[in-house]
Amino acid sequence: MRVINIHKRIINQPIGKVSQLFKTLSTRNDLVWPYENWPAIRFKDGLYVGSKGGHGLVRYSIIEFKEGEHIKFQFSKPVGFIGTHELKIEEINQNKTIISHEIKSNPTFKATLLWVFVTRWLHDALIEDAFDKVENHFLTGNKKETKYSFWVKLLREAYKGKSFQTKHA
């Protein structure tokens, strides 16, 4: 089974302002990754091609990086999840930017089952939380908060001792 999973969000801000947030990825003051509710993303050598890291039980290496545009990762764990994921920032016009995250993978049979029943659900919730965090950085009024499905809540509870914080509703 081929896995292609794409998330996109329009941010009503110029690309310059949005790309400034992405410079904080994997730092103590990360303004993109929702480390408040998920395992933090960390890289041994920072955001550089060849740097190894990941979040929680998911491990990967940076294989492409162009500051202010995109960062692409090659999976190393979970075992059998063969492919990449990529964060992109693209200008729509002077006041709108689109952020996206895309997974492309050819998982083994066992990894496909893990994707279908566990990983996809947690991944989708995490990415929506990240996009909420980026959008909320620029909002002054009501903040975005994606609600977790029953299945995501159940999976987070099951993995709580391994790698999750459970602050989010």
Which strand order spans the largest sheet, edge to edge or round the barrel? 1-7-6-5-4-3-2
> Mean of the pLDDT scores?
92
Q: Report the span from N to C terminus.
A: 32 Å
- The Cα radius of gyration reads 16 Å
Task: Describe the fold and architecture.
This protein is α+β, with helices and mostly antiparallel strands. It has a single domain, classed as START domain (Alpha-D-Glucose-1,6-Bisphosphate, Chain A, domain 4, 2-Layer Sandwich). Helices cover 31% and strands 32% of the residues. The chain contains 3 helices and 7 strands. It has a 7-stranded antiparallel β-sheet. A hairpin with a 5-residue loop joins β5 (70-77) and β6 (83-93). α2 crosses α3 (150-163). The model is unreliable at 165-169 (pLDDT under 50).
Briefly summarize what is shown.
By secondary structure, this protein is α+β, with helices and mostly antiparallel strands. Helices cover 31% and strands 32% of the residues.
Provide tags for this entry.
disordered C terminus, Alpha-D-Glucose-1,6-Bisphosphate, Chain A, domain 4, globular, 169 residues
Indicate the topology.
Blueprint: E1 3-11, H1 15-22, E2 41-43, E3 52-55, E4 58-66, E5 70-77, E6 83-93, E7 96-105, H2 109-138, H3 150-163
